[in-house]
Amino acid sequence: MKIKKTFILFGMIFLIIFQMGCAAAQMNTKATEEKVLLSSLDQEQLLEILSKMGVDIPEELAGINIKELIAYIESEPDLLSVIDYVVADDFLEELRGAVKSYYGKK
Question: What is the DSSP secondary-structure string of 13-55?
Fold first, then answer.
């Protein structure tokens, strides 16, 4: 009889933890879905958002297509890139961090 009560107790604890995990996952999905896709914004809006996040485009990269870079990062947020130009490499990593932060990813 005592074993049956123990099984029931552990079963209930497992169900509660499972439901909490499902609820947390659903909340995280909703938060991500409510965000506007950065790559859908125009260049001016992107620059404003990035500026608020503390990301500035270096003078050497003034003509860069931010929208294209952000679309690339959105599609492959964890893909590492090796660029043989320190300024561009540092900027890309800073931009990647900002995009991930915008979507609530680490």
Answer: HHHHHHHHHHHHHHHHHHHHHHSPPGGGS-HHHHHHHHHHTT-
**Is the model's pLDDT at 14 over the cut of 80?**
no
Q: What is the number of other CB atoms lying within 10 angstroms of the CB of residue 84?
A: 6
Rounded to whole angstroms, what are the CA distances from 21 to 8, 70, 97?
20, 31, 26
pLDDT digits (tens, 9 = 90+) for 31-47: 445 788 999 999 899 99
Measured distance CA(4)–CA(87) in Å, rounded:
65
Q: Is the entire prediction scored with pTM above 0.85? A: no
